[in-house]
UniProtKB/TrEMBL annotation:
<keyword id="KW-0963">Cytoplasm</keyword>
<dbReference type="InterPro" id="IPR036291">
    <property type="entry name" value="NAD(P)-bd_dom_sf"/>
</dbReference>
<comment type="similarity">
    <text>Belongs to the pyrroline-5-carboxylate reductase family.</text>
</comment>
<feature type="binding site">
    <location>
        <position position="62"/>
    </location>
    <ligand>
        <name>NADPH</name>
    </ligand>
</feature>
<comment type="pathway">
    <text>Amino-acid biosynthesis; L-proline biosynthesis; L-proline from L-glutamate 5-semialdehyde: step 1/1.</text>
</comment>
<feature type="binding site">
    <location>
        <begin position="8"/>
        <end position="13"/>
    </location>
    <ligand>
        <name>NADP(+)</name>
    </ligand>
</feature>
<dbReference type="Pfam" id="PF14748">
    <property type="entry name" value="P5CR_dimer"/>
</dbReference>
<dbReference type="InterPro" id="IPR008927">
    <property type="entry name" value="6-PGluconate_DH-like_C_sf"/>
</dbReference>
<dbReference type="GO" id="GO:0055129">
    <property type="term" value="P:L-proline biosynthetic process"/>
</dbReference>
<protein>
    <recommendedName>
        <fullName>Pyrroline-5-carboxylate reductase</fullName>
        <ecNumber>1.5.1.2</ecNumber>
    </recommendedName>
</protein>
<keyword id="KW-0521">NADP</keyword>
<dbReference type="InterPro" id="IPR053790">
    <property type="entry name" value="P5CR-like_CS"/>
</dbReference>
<comment type="function">
    <text>Catalyzes the reduction of 1-pyrroline-5-carboxylate (PCA) to L-proline.</text>
</comment>
<feature type="domain" description="Pyrroline-5-carboxylate reductase catalytic N-terminal">
    <location>
        <begin position="4"/>
        <end position="103"/>
    </location>
</feature>
<feature type="domain" description="Pyrroline-5-carboxylate reductase dimerisation">
    <location>
        <begin position="167"/>
        <end position="270"/>
    </location>
</feature>
<keyword id="KW-0560">Oxidoreductase</keyword>
<keyword id="KW-0028">Amino-acid biosynthesis</keyword>
């Protein structure tokens, strides 16, 4: 049987990873999750068939969960993650691979809160892992060997593309693929609002925007797909799309996206610094 996989914290991101992992064939019997609220624990247990513990109900839930675990995924918010590391430190197996999904929390900060020599991997996943189309970037800590890194890859391999990157690129990755699903959803929201502005019924507006962004995403997911070529295929010379793209260019949509991504990466750097002061 596969060694136990533990999620300490299982909200939006944790559940997306969990869903992708189970869909890829991992047995729910090998998974234990912890959350704070009992109602959330019950929800996860009944939805996925995993063992779920609530730390508000059982004070030692996190420490209890990591005993005997081969992989421990830290799925909590950056604030509180170091406290969580210290809470479970003495219960971790020395060979357990600790994978943080937290934006902005450095390997140095994580390693400082865990036992010396603990293998730690910093990751930046995204929620499309839930549907098998995620992207995850991994950066290995100082005690990670090839077996530990392979174990981290194995967590995500069945539900998306896994990349190995230097840690100093993590904030940039976070600003593109970590936050990126929100940018795509925001575009869908803006398209629906534009449709309503034309006088279309709200439910029709939602369908048009949702199906269009989803359909375009599926086309982009085809092997060898190229966003520029796909865009050009819609843009007839002297046609209608051309006018919309020209308007987006005049309003500098690429510049707007760049400034937004820079703001996201800047916030990550700020969070790292704030955590360092605690
Ligand atoms: N959301 C995203 O798209 C992405 C998020 N991330 C990272 O993922 C991490 C989690 O974010 P997200 O999933 O959005 O946040 P959520 O608030 O949705 O999830 C946090 C989870 O942690 C649980 N939790 C908090 N404290 C404890 C504790 N002490 N012990 C056990 N469980 C605890 C919460 O339980 P309860 O529900 O009971 O309160 C909840 O299940 C963040 O660090 C973020 O940077 C990274 C990439 C993308
Ligand atoms: O917004 C956040 O902080 C997290 C990290 C990347 C996506 N969501």
């Amino acid at each position: 049987m596969m060694k136990k996989i533990v999620f300490l914290g299982c909200g939006s991101m944790g559940e997306a990873i969990l869903s992708g992992m189970l869909a890829a064939g991992v047995s729910p019997q090998s998974v234990v999750v912890t959350v704070r609220r009992p109602e959330r624990a019950n929800e996860l247990a009944s939805r996925h068939g995993v063992t779920a513990l609530a730390s508000n109900e059982e004070a030692g839930a996190n420490a209890q969960a990591v005993v005997g675990a081969g992989v421990v995924i830290l799925g909590v918010k950056p604030v509180g993650i170091m406290e969580l590391c210290r809470e479970v430190a003495s219960s971790l197996e020395s060979e357990a691979v600790v994978i943080s999904v937290a934006a902005a929390v450095s390997l140095e900060q994580l390693e400082g809160a865990l036992p010396a020599g603990q293998p730690v991997v910093r990751s930046m996943p995204n929620t499309p892992l839930k549907v098998g189309r995620g992207v995850v970037a991994l950066s290995a800590g100082s005690s990670v060997d090839e077996h530990h890194l392979a174990a981290a890859h194995e967590v995500f391999d069945g539900s998306g593309v896994v990349l190995d990157i230097p840690e100093d690129q993590q904030n940039a990755v976070s600003a593109i693929s970590g936050s990126g699903p929100a940018y795509a959803f925001y575009l869908a929201e803006a398209m629906a609002a534009a449709a309503e502005n034309f006088g279309l019924a709200p439910e029709i507006a939602q369908i048009l925007a949702r199906e269009t962004v989803a359909g375009a995403g599926i086309m982009l997911a085809e092997p060898g797909a190229n966003a520029t070529l796909l865009r050009r295929a819609v843009t007839s010379p002297n046609g209608t799309t051309e006018q919309a793209i020209a308007s987006f260019d005049r309003d500098n949509l690429p510049g707007i996206v760049l400034t937004g991504a820079q703001a996201a990466a800047g916030r990550a750097a700020q969070i790292t610094e704030e955590l360092g002061r605690n």
